[in-house]
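Thread amino acids onto this structure.
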């Protein structure tokens, strides 16, 4: 039972971090602005918005995973907070599992809000020659009201602005999406492109896997080395089919690398969406299973790295 309180506290601490809210808000604003670029393309406006939004979700999720993991794990190891927690009846495995769960919950919140923003952005860009100004106003109005609610809450209660603003966005962005979905669109334009949901879910899965990897590495590495290592694994995973997959059948080292390096290309469905191919939910289920295996692997890696880790105050 000690896992749940620590996980909830980690989730709250992650939402209180200014970098988390800054990355979340920046990603949502960027996704909302992508439709304005579609006025300069010809019949490829939806592809531009979808590709840009999916890339934003994946890259910002990677950066958020590393930064949040280091702020909640490496910093607590350095300042001795972990030593105080482990002095109670809490073992290291339960502590790590709770930390990973808390960070994954925060990343899932980010992926969910960014996914809703993508649905609205695609709806706005469906018309080649005109933007849906009502949807734009509702979307950015929700972002502004969420920030205003966080500011007022911070002013009157002195509570954390990033957490209050994030909670405001968690309420207002889904509400704005529902209102946009209910507004009758122009002729030939669908309300919301729900066929994007499987692709958005898969990008969310990749973000969770990166979060678990970053948390595991944060038990030993500071922020910059963690960013470098996760960045290298991220890039290797994107080109895994080309680098290792071609030789996996004949080269044992390529076979080993191909199976150990997470293949992020499996989560990238922009090409299938550009070809108007439906993504079956069965594929999403296999993606969830693959992500679960990655989470288990990275959790075991975290336990191994953290087993002999000194957790007292250290001069670094």
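Threaded sequence (316 positions):
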């Amino acid at each position: 039972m000690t896992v749940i309180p620590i996980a909830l506290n980690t989730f709250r601490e992650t939402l209180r971090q200014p970098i988390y809210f800054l990355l979340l808000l920046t990603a949502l604003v960027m996704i909302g602005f992508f439709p304005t670029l579609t006025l300069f393309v010809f019949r490829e406006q939806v592809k531009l918005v979808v590709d840009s939004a999916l890339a934003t979700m994946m890259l910002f999720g990677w950066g958020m995973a590393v930064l949040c993991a280091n702020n909640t794990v490496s910093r607590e190891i350095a300042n001795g907070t972990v030593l105080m927690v482990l002095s109670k009846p809490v073992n290291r495995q339960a502590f790590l599992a709770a930390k990973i769960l808390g960070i994954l919950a925060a990343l899932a919140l980010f992926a969910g809000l960014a996914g809703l923003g993508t649905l609205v952005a695609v709806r706005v860009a469906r018309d080649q020659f005109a933007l849906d100004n009502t949807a734009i106003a509702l979307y950015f109005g929700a972002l502004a009201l969420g920030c205003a609610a966080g500011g007022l809450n911070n002013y009157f209660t002195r509570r954390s602005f990033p957490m209050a603003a994030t909670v405001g966005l968690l309420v207002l962005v889904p509400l704005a999406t529902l209102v946009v979905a209910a507004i009758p669109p122009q002729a030939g334009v669908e309300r919301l492109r729900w066929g994007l949901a499987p692709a958005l879910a898969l990008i969310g899965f990749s973000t969770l896997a990166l979060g678990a990897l970053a948390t595991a590495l944060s038990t030993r590495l500071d922020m910059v080395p963690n960013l470098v290592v996760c960045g290298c694994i991220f890039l290797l995973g994107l080109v895994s089919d080309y680098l290792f997959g071609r030789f996996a059948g004949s080269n044992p080292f390529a076979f080993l690398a191909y199976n150990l390096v997470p293949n992020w290309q499996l989560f990238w469905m922009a090409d299938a969406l550009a070809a108007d191919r439906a993504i079956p939910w069965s594929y999403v289920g296999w993606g969830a299973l693959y992500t679960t295996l990655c989470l288990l692997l990275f959790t075991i890696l975290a336990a191994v790295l953290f087993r002999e880790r000194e957790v007292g105050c250290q001069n670094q």
